[in-house]
Design brief:
Structural class: alpha+beta
CATH architecture of the largest domain: Roll
Shape: globular
CATH superfamily of the largest domain: LON domain-like
Distance between the termini: 54 Å
Helix content: 25-40%
Number of strands: 7
């Protein structure tokens, strides 16, 4: 029986990566549970939730996941040269993952609480060093092809792009995703960059 998903009850895709708001990720889909999930998403016009794996594997497993994830939507799809389904997803909103259920095909379904997107307040200004680092990363061919239009006028978008592009551990990026204030996010980013530089 095909599960009925709605905005408060969504499938979860556990990953060994963290997706931030407005971040873009390409995925290859080959497991039947995720093929069914994608069909449901496209048929019923809903997204799904990505969550960082705490322990376990992405493939043929039902891993433990962190409780803060990202609601994503499919923005493109195609049949790849290897005959697998390729999808492109974009992060839309941070979410808190509540009670989970493992369905018959081992797909995880969860109760979802949507978290408010962060709002910058007076004094929430990106450090000049962080901004310079982002501008340097923007010159890399990979970044140019993936994000040709990073908006420096949107401080939050700039901060999240830096979160994604830094060569940091998934644990560090999960901590950044969980930041509930812009000032906290910026302070954590600055600390992380200092650690990477040392």
């Amino acid at each position: 029986m095909t599960p009925q998903f709605d905005k408060q009850h969504l499938p979860v895709f556990p990953l060994h990566t963290v997706i931030f708001v407005n971040g873009i990720l390409q995925l290859q889909i080959f497991e039947q549970r995720y093929l069914s999930m994608i069909k449901s998403c496209m048929r019923n016009q809903h997204g799904f939730v990505t969550a960082l794996i705490h322990s376990g594997k992405e493939v043929e497993d039902t891993p433990e996941i962190y409780s803060t994830g990202t609601y994503v939507e499919i923005i493109d799809w195609d049949k790849l040269d290897n005959n697998l389904l390729g999808i492109t997803i974009q992060g839309k909103q941070r979410v808190q993952i509540g009670k989970t259920h493992v369905l018959e095909d081992n797909l995880i379904s969860a109760e979802i609480n949507y978290l408010d997107n962060l709002t910058a307040h007076a004094g929430d200004v990106m450090d000049d060093d962080l901004l310079a680092l982002l501008n340097t990363l923007k010159q890399h061919p990979f970044v140019i092809s993936k994000y040709p239009d990073i908006d420096n006028d949107s401080m939050l978008d700039s901060a999240y792009k830096l979160c994604e592009l830094l060569p940091a551990s998934n644990m560090s990026k999960q901590t950044l995703l969980e930041a509930d204030q812009v000032r906290t996010l910026l302070d954590q980013l600055k600390e992380l960059v200092a650690q990477l530089e040392s």
